[in-house]
Amino acid sequence: MSEARNEENGSAGTAAYVDRIVAAALGFAEMASIALGDRLGWYRALAGAGDAGLTPDELAQRSNTQPRYAKEWLEQQAVAGLLTAVLDAEPLGGPSYRFALPAGAAAVLVDEDSLEYTAPVARMLVTAVGHFPDLLQAYRDGGGVAWSELGDDGRESQAELNKPWFDQRLGAALAASAELHAILSRPGARIMDVGAGFGWSTLALADAYPGAEVVGVDIDEPSIRRARENAGERGSSGRVSFALADAGDMAAPGSCDAVFIFEALHDMPFPVRVLSAIRNFIKPDGAVVVMDEAVADTFAPAGDEVERLMYGYSLLVCLPDSLSTPGSVGTGTPMRQATLERYAVEAGFSRVERLPIEDFSVFRFYRLHV
């Protein structure tokens, strides 16, 4: 009886594990289909059609794509529950349908100003998987896949995910800390944004604190070029500046009132070196703020969705990027508070404070005290 029961339990466990893998396969395939719809402009075309929806031929015509592919994608999206399908006609060749975005979907898939805009997640992950042979080689020999190798799809998806949060929530989030807000509000305050990317965080800082001098710094030339373009389009070129440089070469000792690192420290191959440079040029009464992933304080099996997503990013993007530099410490995306505290102390800071900023996407804010 005991052997039979164990066999039955094992069979049930195997079936459950198969279900888990099938569910993951469905998620992977549907994520790739979302990336297709995003990059081909199909979701935007559907959003433009409103409740009336589009036929495959209409979608193909509006997006300059092929009707047969459009038909297959529309049907797949409807089967997956990502689109609605309404019977349009029943010609001799069989029924035809019109397809539309359901209520609320445009905010997630199309509206780049929406806090719920998450289509770039699909683009980022599919772009990373496109480098699968390089990832395999890196995992074998200890090398990596640099951020620059992901190209514009990687850069743009990262920037688009964070932009609405910076635009709409950053100023209020920083004002939640009275002491930090006072520092940033100093007349003529000098603020540096390290790892500025496309500059959305830099521009948000300048909007929130118009009396400050704000400079964004990054080592990625295409990102800095786009940041300057974004500043020009917003009419902010006179209030902010962007530099293609290592932050450690950008400031004299004791010259900055505040320094920010937004979702970038865990990618850096030598975080202590960066923090040591910042420790040198921050004023004694200044503020250093690191925004990074809101992961659990310690590793534990069966983590929540944030933990699972960050490990996914780490496997495919962040850790390979960091390890593409020889000698990197290889932090990885799930940078826990204890790790940040260790880096900060090694760099000469006295302590790390978790700031009272909640519900800011999947991020957490820390202040490093001199």
UniProtKB/TrEMBL annotation:
Which domain of life, per UniProt?
A: Bacteria
Give UniProt keywords alphabetically. Answer: Methyltransferase, Transferase
Q: Where is the Methyltransferase domain?
A: 187-299
Q: Which GO terms describe its molecular function?
A: methyltransferase activity
> What's any GO biological process attached to this entry?
methylation
Annotated transmembrane regions: none
One Pfam family named in its UniProt record = Methyltransf_31
Q: What is this protein called?
A: SAM-dependent methyltransferase
